[in-house]
Specification:
By secondary structure, this protein is mainly beta. Helix content is 9%, strand content 20%. An eight-stranded mixed β-sheet has the order 12-13-10-9-14-15-17-16, with no helix packed on it. A three-stranded antiparallel β-sheet has the order 3-4-8, with no helix packed on it. Bound molecules: zinc ion (ZN) (2 copies).
């Protein structure tokens, strides 16, 4: 089906333009080698949870170093008001300690955009990307021009006789197009938003609670935790973009090359891991860089190269354990339209928060926040 992601960091390559500056984060900070018995991870909810920590019922064989939650991994400015640790109850019933903090809602490591191409000749270098669960595509003018063919649907025609593409270039258009029921006059628009068009022109912060030591779930891994997690540079890792609703309205909710875009409800948020905003440097040989924490507290690293996948023996959630890091996830390829597949650990359930992922990769009802729009470069703060 077409296109490849040329302007963007493929799979496991980091985009050098978008990494934390070496000044921001010390080089090899990663392994907070807190020895943690895997068995302790599984502890879950025991009724006498009043004892504080010092009881470690670990079998030596299961011991390994588990990389746990560390505020220090976040970029300066990614967390707004510091972090508070407090007792929490996870969705599987486990009592845990959670770090509660508010993320800035705008990447500290790069400027967002560009998103939509402006004409049918706009090159990949001047526009963002699109992924639909089946592939990842440079959002060139040519791609827009060929939408009717690409999606085999003659109702696509997103440009005028001069080759100018319909782009949501005002706040009003953004609000009309970036909502569940796309205003009919914005059908056949490439949708993008800007920081300036959010309420008060401000980034939308989000407060999250993440267990400081992950606790494995005793039931099946959750495929629907709401958001998957947060990036180390202060952005929500959202559920799948509601592609069927977006395409159903004949819109394209473009992503920038970092895999993020804006909507009015969440501001800037990520739907793919393309190599942006990572912890600088590889600390562990053979591993890709870390860029976020999942809601269950396990670290998320960039995708592994296809050639390394077999040996890595990733589980159904895309994770594995390695010496030094313990259990961690590797993000899916952007083409999957889902940064993670499921969570192995328990997390803090958030009630009614954005309605969860509207229908997986390429299907599912237009629920929640269909059209999320995305947009251009607004240097933030
Ligand atoms: Zn790994
Ligand atoms: Zn979105």
């Amino acid at each position: 089906m077409g296109g490849s992601l040329s302007g963007t960091a493929p799979e496991d390559e980091r985009n050098p333009m978008s990494r934390f500056s070496p000044n921001t984060l010390p080089k090899s900070r990663v392994i907070g080698a807190v020895a943690l018995a895997m068995t302790a991870l599984v502890a879950g909810c025991s009724s006498d949870s009043s004892s504080s920590t010092s009881t470690s019922t670990s079998s030596k064989s299961a011991e390994q170093s588990q990389h746990v939650f560390e505020t220090a991994h976040f970029a300066d400015g990614a967390i707004v008001d510091g972090t508070k640790n407090a007792a929490c109850t996870l969705n599987g019933g486990a009592k845990a300690t959670c770090a509660t903090f508010t993320i800035a809602g705008y990447p500290t490591a790069y400027s967002t955009g560009p998103f939509c191409p402006t004409t049918i000749t706009t090159p990949a270098s001047e526009a963002g990307i699109w992924f639909d669960g089946n592939g990842t595509y440079d959002l060139t003018g040519e791609f827009i021009k060929n939408l009717a063919t690409f999606y085999n649907d003659n109702e696509w025609h997103m440009y005028d006789s001069k080759g100018n593409i319909n782009v949501t270039d005002t706040r009003e258009a953004f609000l009309g197009a970036a909502r569940p029921d796309v205003d009919p006059k914005y059908q056949n628009f490439c949708v993008e938003g800007r920081l300036a068009w959010l309420t008060n022109g401000e980034a939308i912060t989000k407060t999250v609670s993440i267990p400081t030591k992950p606790v494995l779930t005793s039931s099946s891994p959750s495929t629907n935790p709401g958001d998957w997690g947060v990036t180390l540079d202060g952005v929500v890792i959202a559920a799948s973009a509601p592609v069927s609703a977006i395409l159903g309205a004949h819109t394209i909710a473009s992503f920038d090359k970092c895999g993020g875009h804006f909507n009015n409800a969440e501001g800037y948020h990520m739907h793919a891991s393309t190599g942006c905003g990572t912890l600088d440097n590889d600390h562990i040989s053979g591993e890709t860089a870390m860029f976020g924490y999942a809601m269950d507290g396990f670290p998320i690293h960039l995708p592994l190269k296809a050639s390394k996948l077999k040996a890595a023996k990733l589980d159904e959630c895309g994770g594995h354990s390695t010496p030094g890091l313990g259990y961690h996830y590797h993000a899916n390829s952007p083409s999957k339209n889902s940064v993670l597949t499921c969570l192995k650990g328990q997390f803090v359930a958030v009630a009614g928060d954005r309605g969860g992922p509207p229908g997986g990769a390429t299907g599912g009802p237009p629920v929640g926040q269909p059209n999320q729009s995305p947009p251009p470069n607004q240097p933030a703060k």
